[in-house]
Structure formats: structure tokens, C-alpha cells
Design brief:
The protein is of the alpha+beta class and 120 residues long. It has a domain of 81 residues. Helices cover 45% and strands 12% of the residues. It has a three-stranded antiparallel β-sheet, covered by helices on one side. Helix 1 packs across helix 3 and helix 2 runs antiparallel to helix 3. The longest helix has 13 residues. The model has no long low-confidence stretch (mean pLDDT 89).
């Protein structure tokens, strides 16, 4: 199945954990700001035991150094955030309706051996 690719760069981040969280944005600048206010800034300060790291986080946020704030936050919380730049496809019902999915799956590589075995 051929999927059209967007010319938009896109960006996304995955906060690892038992229940991973995913953040999507139109580009790397927006994902940085999003993580700064939606993840880092919403952390209760009493969850950060290291006063030096807390001050570093606060200073970075106030100076809009989103990447620095995120790195200090990861050090302080032990959480890991993977940030990626690139197109993130979002499939629509129009592009992948039930009929097309049913036909496409039968033509997919996983069924190649099965088709050969069925001919034998």
C-alpha cells in the first residue's frame, strides 16, 4: 500500500514508562515548547528533591530554553523522553477503510508463503 507523505517535518516525543505518553507537534520548535509547559512545568516541585536541578529547570523555563529544561527534568525525575523529528503518518478512514484493509492484508508479504503453500 502506498501512502502519501507530507512535506511537513513534524515531531513527536515518547515519555517512557509503564504507560508511555506520546506528544505530537508540527515541528521541533513546537514539540520543545509543548514538552516545556505540558510535561516539565506541570511537575509538582516537591517531586524534585535536588534543589540545584529545580533551580536549573526554573531558570531554563523562564528563559525559554526548553531543551535545557527537559534535560534537567529528566535528570531530576529519572524519566526518559525520546524526541524525534519527522513525519508522523495519521491514517484516515478514507485512506484505509475496511474493504481496502481486507484486500491489502491478503496481498501483504506475510501471506506470500501461505499463497505458495496453498497452491501446492
Amino acid at each position: 500500500m502506498t501512502r502519501r507523505r507530507s512535506t511537513e517535518p513534524g515531531a513527536y516525543a515518547v515519555v517512557r514508562g509503564d504507560e508511555p505518553r506520546v506528544f505530537l507537534a508540527e515541528n521541533s520548535s513546537v514539540i520543545s515548547r509543548l514538552l516545556g509547559f505540558e510535561l516539565v512545568a506541570k511537575t509538582p516541585p516537591d517531586l524534585i528533591d535536588d534543589d540545584t536541578l529545580l533551580r536549573e529547570i526554573l531558570e531554563a523555563l523562564l528563559q525559554e530554553r526548553w531543551g535545557d529544561a527537559l534535560v534537567a527534568w529528566m535528570k531530576a525525575t529519572g524519566e526518559i523522553v525520546d524526541v524525534y523529528e519527522g513525519y508522523v503518518p495519521v491514517w484516515t478512514e478514507e485512506e484505509l477503510d475496511e474493504t481496502r484493509a481486507s484486500l491489502e492484508v491478503r496481498m501483504s508479504p506475510i501471506f506470500a508463503l501461505g499463497r505458495q503453500a496453498m497452491r501446492s
